[in-house]
Amino acid sequence: MRGDIQKMILENKICVMATVANGVPHCSLMSYAAEDDGHVIYMATLKDTKKYRNLIATPKVSLLIDTRDGSASGKTRALTITGDFQAIDDEQRINEIREKLIRKHPDLKEFFTDPNSRIVVIKVTALQLLDNVTDAYFEKLT
Length: 142
Prior knowledge:
globular, alpha+beta, 8 strands
């Protein structure tokens, strides 16, 4: 993974996650944390949500991270991440991920520790970076 892409993943905190079920797409604004290499991204959601049901039904996802700051003069970069949802059952691992999320988003601690909250693990499989309107870079991860 290119260093600038890895940095973009690690420095941002919010993404849009697109899921799908029965051929119908659904987008959700999500807070996230990532492993240091950027290859795995963590989020949480309540178990009784459309996005979680979609993840269970169809584990393919797309994430969008961008650098918009609201200024017309700023150079916007948009990173589309393709990945696979992975369910985890290991309580120790769930707690480690939950702590990572809390460190990045301390204001969401109550949400992350809610008994109805579920950890979402996304294994990154491909990346597409768009710089401005015309410059695109694609990378498939193995």
